Amino acid sequence: GAVVSQHPSRVICKSGTSVKIECRSLDFQATTMFWYRQFPKKSLMLMATSNEGSKATYEQGVEKDKFLINHASLTLSTLTVTSAHPEDSSFYICSASSRGQGNQPQHFGDGTRLSIL
Amino acid sequence: AQKITQTQPGMFVQEKEAVTLDCTYDTSDQSYGLFWYKQPSSGEMIFLIYQGSYDEQNATEGRYSLNFQKARKSANLVISASQLGDSAMYFCAMGPPSGNTGKLIFGQGTTLQVKP
Questions:
Q1: Could you tell me which residues come within 8 angstroms of residue A64 by beta carbon, excluding any fewer than 6 positions away?
Q2: CB contacts, 8 Å: A93 with chain B
Q3: How far apart, in Å, do the first and last CA atoms of chain A sit?
Q4: Phi, psi (degrees; rounded to nearest 5) at A76
Q5: What residue of A is the nearest CA neighbor of B36?
Q6: Residues B3, B75 contacting (CB under 8 angstroms)
Q7: CA–CA distance, B61 with A103 (Å, rounded to integer)
Q8: Degrees (nearest 5) of the Cα angle B24, B27, B33?
Q9: What is the largest CA-CA distance in chain B?
Q10: How far is CA A51 from CA A32, A105, B75, in A?
C-alpha cells in the first residue's frame, strides 16, 4: 500500500518551455504533498508543501512564479516549471502524506529528471 | 531549528561485511522520528527503517538496524552482511513521530560502495 506515482519520469525540452509534473497517490488520500529538488550527489531540498484545496507554502528562496504548485484533489498535485531554463535542470521528487500511514510520514514518487536544452 | 548531519560523504565496505553510517541530529522537540532512506542511482527513495524518540529499543528491519543513542543525539544505521545491491546513497532524516504528517529534514547523504 501507500503507492505514489510520479509522471513523467524523464523529460527533455527546449529552453522557454513550461513543464508539468504530476504526483498521484494511488491507494490513499494525501492531505499533504511535498515537492523536492535534488542536484547530483546532493541532498533533497524541500521546495514547497501543498495541502489539498489551499495554496502551497514555499520554502525560502524558491520562486513561486517559477514553480507553480497545484493540489486540486486528495490524490493529485502538480508542479509546473514555467519558462524553464537550463539552470532549472534537476531531479524533482514528490511525496505524499496522510495521517495514520504507519511509520513513514511521507511516501515518495520515483522522481522526474528534467533536462532543459 | 532541526538539523541532521551526516559526516561521511563516501564509504567503502567489502561484500559480506557490516558497515555503520553515521547520523547526528539536533532538535528541541521532545517527540520526533528518525528515518533512513536508500537512494540507488535510479533515483527512487526507499524507506529502510524508523526510530521513534520514545522507543527504548533500537529498531531493526532485516539486515538494517538503527543504533539510537538519544543522549548523544545520534542515529547510526548499521547494515550487516553487505551485498553488492546495497551500493547507493543513504540519507538520514528527522521528522514527525509515527502516524503523523510533517516535514522531513534530510542529512547531506552518504554514498556507500560495496566491493566484491
A1: A56, A58
A2: 43, 45
A3: 37
A4: -140, 130
A5: A104
A6: no
A7: 13
A8: 75
A9: 42
A10: 5, 15, 30
Give the position of cell 553487505. B82
Closest-CA residue of chain A to B59:
A103
Determine, for residues B43 and A113 on separate chains, whether the beta-carbon distance falls below 8 Å: yes
Q: Report phi then psi at A46, rounded to 5.
A: -70, 130
Q: How far is A47 from chain B (nearest CA, A)?
A: 11
**Helical (H) or strand (E) element with A87:** none
List per-residue pLDDT tens for chain A, 117 residues long: 679 999 999 999 999 999 999 999 998 888 899 999 999 999 999 999 998 888 899 999 999 999 999 988 889 999 999 999 999 999 999 999 887 667 788 999 999 999 999
Contact A5, A24 (CB under 8 A): yes
- Name every chain A residue with its beta carbon within 8 A of the beta carbon of B107: 43
| Cell (9 digits) for B50 | 524508523
Contact: A101, B99; criterion CB under 8 Å: yes
Other Cβ atoms within 10 Å of A15 Cβ, number:
12
Q: Show residues of chain A in contact with B100, CB under 8 Å.
A: 99, 105
Distance CA B93, CA B106 (A): 4
**In degrees rounded to 5, what are phi and psi of residue A14?**
-80, 155
The rounded distance, in Å, linking the Cα atoms of B112 and B9 is: 9
